[in-house]
Amino acid sequence: MTSGKARLLREVEILARTYTNLAINTLVRICEMDDAPEAARVQAAKTLLDRGWGKAPQVVEVSTPVGDLADDDLSRRIADRLAGIVRAAGSSASGSGIAGDAGGAASPGSEVKSPRVVH
Questions:
Q1: pTM for the complete prediction?
Q2: Cα separation of 59 and 117, whole Å?
Q3: What does the pLDDT profile of the chain (119 residues) look like in tens digits?
């Protein structure tokens, strides 16, 4: 990124932050509006909670056959899987964000299942 572009992005960030109080007050007003659509009230409340307390961690079970994969192959498969998760999370507001398994069927005892926390 060029220094000019970085400076411009920083200026936009600073400008946007000057509206923090207005944005929070707007979200609070939406939460308090009895006649506002329920979806709008829920989204406003969720946004306030996420900003105030941080987003709740998501537990995702990752199941990947590892068998006799070389380190480079395993690293590539992990990178591919993570890229798929990121793509799915970015393109789906209501989806789970879990990409399909790119690997073949696992042989008995070669499958790794462990919970992962994704923020």
A1: 0.45
A2: 5
A3: 778 888 999 999 999 999 999 999 999 999 999 999 999 999 999 999 999 998 888 887 767 666 667 778 878 888 888 888 888 887 654 444 444 444 444 444 444 445 555 55
Q: Residue 44 and residue 29: Cα distance in Å, rounded?
A: 9
| Amino acid identity at 33 | M
**What tokens were used for 36?**
């506002």
Closest CA to 41 of 23, 27, 22: 27
Cα–Cα distance between 59 and 62 in angstroms, integer? 10
Alpha-carbon 82 to chain mean position: 11
